[in-house]
Amino acid sequence: MHCLGFALSPRFYDSTYVNTPAPSGTIRKRPNEDKEGVSGVVKAFEKIASHPEEARMLRKQFVVFHMRKGLFSTAAAFVDASTMGAIEWWATYGSETPELAEVARKVLSQPIATSSAERNWSTYSYIHNVKRSKFFVFVFIFIF
Predict the structure, then answer these.
(1) For an engineered disulfide with 49, which of 54, 70, 119, 123 has Cβ 3.0 to 4.6 Å away?
(2) What single string gives the DSSP state of each residue in the chain?
């Protein structure tokens, strides 16, 4: 899924981003030029798709996206790729590839960290804890 998120982020295809060296000094590549990245994208499509035909359709739509065909080739799409958030960009320009746009919005809207889940479990522990559960069992047995 990380490869898919990387490959579906339009700013990583921007020439300004690609021409800027990474913090480690290595030369950046577009996601579609990275062998491991493309392999991860294909595997993710196979896992997401409910049948092989759907996976093939997602791969075809991915080609339209990364080769900048149709709506993706407009000057506005180029400019907005580096200035707009990825989810907003897909909401704006994804109409030509609706299934891929839906996958992109779902994948790119996933939280990066587990802090939100941890916060939920922390709140849950205040509500359901061993001491409180024993009290309710005691009250239930005592009443009946």
Answers:
(1) 54
(2) -HHHHHHT-GGGG-HHHHHSPPTTSPPP--GGG-HHHHHHHHHHHHHH-SSHHHHHHHHHHHHHHHTT-GGGGSHHHHHHHHHS-HHHHHHHHGGGSHHHHHHHHHHHTS-SSSHHHHHHHHHHHHHS-HHHHHHHHHHHHHH-
> Which residue ranges of the chain lie beneath pLDDT 50?
139
Torsion of Cα atoms, 55 then 86 then 94 then 79, to 10°: -130
Using a 10 angstrom Cβ sphere, with 0-12 exposed, 13-18 middle and 19 or more buried, the burial of residue 128 is exposed
pTM of the model: 0.73
Closest to 17 in 3D by CA, of 8, 7, 27: 27
Cα–Cα nearest to 7, from 49, 48, 35: 35
CA 63/CA 82 separation, integer angstroms = 20
